[in-house]
Amino acid sequence: MFDLLIERFNKSLSKLSSTRKITEKQVNDVLREIRTALLEADVDYDVAKAFLKRVRERVLTEDLKKNISPTDSIVLTVYEELTNILGGEKADIKKGTVLFVGLQGTGKTTTIGKVAHFLKNQGFKVAVASTDVRRPAAMLQLEKLAERVGVPYYRFDETSPVSIAVKSKERALKEGMDYLLLDTAGRLHVDEELMQELKQIKEAVKPSEVLYVADAMQGQEALRVAKVFHETVPLTGVILTKMDGDARGGVALSVKSAIGVPIKFVGVGEKIEDLEVFYPDRIAQRILG
Length: 289
Ligand code: GDP
Hints:
Keywords: Cytoplasm, GTP-binding, Hydrolase, Nucleotide-binding, Ribonucleoprotein, RNA-binding, Signal recognition particle
Main location: cytoplasm
Strand content: 5-15%
Structural class: alpha/beta
Subcellular location: Cytoplasm
Shape: elongated
Bound molecules: guanosine-5'-diphosphate
Protein name: Signal recognition particle protein
């Protein structure tokens, strides 16, 4: 993950010599290289443009930081702005009913298992349920995952997704759960019926979080779909899956600016443990090497 950015950022920033003065031309040259790197890594065009504008303005106008070289000062500015576009602060998961939404095949069900495992390890009481009544196989997949993680799976003899959602929430409250992780129907494409169903579930259970599960490998397309979801059921966060297979990682840099919600976790493999909390500052540090 981020291999390309790490390599390219290193290369461009290392061109700044450790001299005491850096010319505007040098700054422009470095920023031009960073721009190419960002776009090659599939960072949203507007996000890249705004990022470079801020870095350039700060580097050329702010007083250089005391006690560090001009080069380090530029690297620090890039680091701060990178942290910023990655979302700034680490985002928490609010207790309550957490709705997972997204298209089929993005890794939504697997991710619910991972998040259940993560929260359980943190000492929270977690239950899971699925409203994907059209795909019994998906429900069974979640039930098996819950069994492996060791958290209850709520099953109801119901055909209405909204009823399942409401009954699951009631049961979770009764059983004193900190979190109810609720899977929703996944389709291959966005359709009106799916959106209406999500809207109804959302209104019925008033979730604490609506998390959009996106496949990082799908690049900018994942963001376009996320925006469509966001218009119908306002999202509170994104989980990017399959980051282990995406050496570019540009989507991770684009989510916050493009949709306005933070990335909360990233999926980095198929196993239940393969989930990382998304720390913008640590990621920025990793990118800068
Ligand atoms: P759903 O249709 O969205 O519920 O998708 P699934 O949870 O069934 O996942 C689809 C495929 O993606 C499965 O083969 C998962 O093992 C795989 N998958 C999910 N998350 C990740 C991830 O972070 N990394 C990798 N490499 N594979 C993942």
